[in-house]
Design goal:
- The complex is a heterodimer of chains A (225) and B (327).
- Chain A is α/β, with parallel strands linked by helices.
- Helix content of chain A is 34%, strand content 27%.
- The two termini of chain A are 27 Å apart.
- In chain B, 71% of the residues lie in helices and 6% in strands.
- Chain B starts with 16 loop residues before the first helix and ends with a helix.
- Classes of the chains: A alpha/beta (225), B mainly alpha (327).
Chain lengths: 225, 327
């Protein structure tokens, strides 16, 4: 589902990632851990094609990034659900409108959007909040809106970059439980975090990155740095 | 909700014609919504555009008026040949026949001595002194032939003929070539040429200024909405979907500017045309401008809106290409 082959990314003299190889199977739940500056965000940007690797190969969902043309990038991004640490919700739109936004961009008919949005609100447990604005929600709720937006197009892959980074423990676990649920539905989940409790709770494959290199990759990992 | 990947075909397979239409509809809708939101920011751009379109309108009307004035004056240019009293009817008839054979002659009219006197009296009816001067003597006014040339700028053939000694012998006074009028026409024609060139340069300058102001407006809008634009990009919006609303919004500036410009100009013609007529010293026919404006109202409106839309769309296309990061 996701294949990185000796991927290197350098910014000027500094290298953010060095010969990183990673293979993620369909329906897998993989946690990328590492401290700030380890290269997690760079990895994330490479997967969403915000950045291009300096060297190495990336294949996601059967799409070889080397062969990807600029005009195909939007289609790639519609295939991948993304969740950010800072939520990236539109402040002037309601919860329902924020989720609908992703479907509008994809060109879905309005009737279908109205039909789909409530269902995905059920999945993240936010039924009844559809007409609230982001500022009326807690951090955890905001992040669940962001997750709803990411999965509403039913992507095969969901990548979440520090989704719990701005949340208190209770809300963080709410978010993580939603991610587990989505994974159970068959979506491949790639989660970056440096929260030890979450890693230990999930008992999933853990890939540890340090100074731009993969230093460990365990099937059922524990947090270790 | 079932989230199994097989439950639905991938999104891009569904991007058929319907979806493209939906996308276009949303681009327009978003353009209108953004126009409403940014209206205060857009006022400077719209005002500048209205000024540009007004100048364009005045240039069109002025051009039509100048052309009208020139053709009006040229149609009144003629050559008067004054005949001695001794000229016989036969001599006159053969002179008319010969004149009519000259290429550039459109028509030849004849004014008899009696007719000339009547015309003179009619022209000076308000001036008893001049009337008295004439009645004292026995009609001093000569009979005349009035030659209307086809092209008033090419009187040489007519002049050559009239200057032949045997023809000159028949004339009581030097031929009148409406000389002063021709000079006036030349001046107006030159002025028209100048105004046309100045108008084109002026319009270009104003279009450039309008575009620069639109650039700036779009740049500010992009800055205000940078978060939304980043999110759109990350969620897989196509560059066209992101740029489209900006272009629609700016096209609306053009439509509003055209309407404002037309209302202002229409009002100006309605209220000030008599004042303008007086200040133009009779050189220009402002009434004609006003009529031209109202007779061609729809054409002018269409031209203004089209010009506004084109200026708007072009500036937005350039500005979004320059300021939007679409990758």
């Amino acid at each position: 589902m996701i294949l990185l082959d000796r991927v290197t990314k350098t910014y000027g003299q500094e290298s953010a990632l060095e010969r990183v190889s990673l293979h993620v199977e369909p329906k897998e739940f993989v946690i990328i851990v590492g401290q700030s500056g380890a290269g997690k965000s760079t990895l994330f940007k490479l997967l969403t094609r915000e950045e291009k690797p300096t060297a190495g190969k990336i294949i996601v969902g059967g799409m070889d990034y080397d062969k990807l043309k600029d005009k195909d990038v939007p289609l790639l991004r519609r295939k991948i659900g993304v969740v950010f640490q800072d939520f990236k919700l539109l402040a002037n739109r309601t919860v329902a409108e924020n989720i609908a936004f992703a479907l509008e961009i994809a060109g879905l008919p309005t009737a279908e959007i109205k039909h789909t949005v409530p269902k995905v609100l059920d999945v993240v447990g936010l039924r009844g909040k559809e007409n609230n604005y982001p500022k009326e929600l807690s951090g955890g709720e905001k992040q669940r809106v962001a997750i709803a937006r990411a999965i509403v197009r039913q992507p095969k892959i969901l990548i979440a970059d520090e989704p719990t980074g701005n949340l208190d423990p209770k809300h963080a676990f709410d978010v993580i439980k939603v991610l587990e649920k989505i994974n159970q539905f068959g979506t491949t989940v790639l989660l970056t975090t440096h929260n030890q409790e979450i890693v230990n709770y999930l008992k999933r494959r853990v890939v540890t990155i340090k100074d731009g290199k993969v230093i460990s990759d365990r099937a059922v990992g524990k947090y270790k740095l | 909700m079932r989230l199994k990947p097989k439950a639905q075909p991938p999104v891009e397979n569904k991007m058929n014609r319907d979806h493209k239409f939906i996308t276009l509809e949303r681009i327009f809708k978003n353009g209108f919504v953004n126009f409403g939101r940014n209206i205060w920011l857009a006022i400077a751009a719209m005002a500048m555009m209205a000024v540009t379109l007004t100048i364009l309108l005045f240039a069109i009307v002025a051009n039509a008026t100048f052309s009208h004035t020139i053709s009006d004056i040229t149609s009144h240019i003629d050559v008067s040949v004054y005949l001695k009293d001794e000229v016989t009817d036969e001599q006159r008839s053969s002179l008319i026949v010969e004149l009519k054979q000259i290429d550039n002659v459109q028509a030849v009219g004849y004014t008899s001595k009696d007719q000339a006197l009547k015309n003179y009296r009619a022209q000076n009816i308000d001036n008893p002194e001049l009337l008295a001067a004439i009645s004292e003597t026995d009609n001093p006014l000569p009979a005349s032939l009035v030659i209307s040339p086809k092209d008033p700028n090419k009187l040489d053939t007519i002049k050559d003929y009239l200057d032949k000694p045997e023809i000159e012998a028949l004339q009581s006074d030097p031929t009148s070539y409406s000389g002063d009028r021709k000079a006036a026409i030349d001046k107006i024609a030159k002025a028209t040429q100048f105004f046309r060139q100045a108008g084109i340069i002026g319009i270009i300058i104003f279009i450039i200024i309008s575009m620069l102001i639109i650039f700036n407006t779009i740049r500010m809008t992009i800055f205000n909405r940078r978060d939304e634009l980043v999110i759109m990009r990350l969620l897989g919006a196509t560059p066209g979907y992101i740029r489209g609303p900006f272009i629609v919004e700016t096209m609306l500036y053009g439509v509003v500017a055209a309407a404002v410009s037309l209302i202002v100009c229409g009002g100006l013609f309605a209220v000030a045309s008599s004042t303008l007529q007086a200040s133009s010293l009779g050189l220009l026919d402002i009434k004609y401008s006003s009529d031209y404006f109202s007779n061609n109202l729809w054409l002018i409106l269409t031209a203004q809106i089209l010009a506004g839309i084109i200026i708007g769309a072009a500036s937005a296309a350039i500005a979004t290409r320059r300021y939007l990061k679409l990758k």
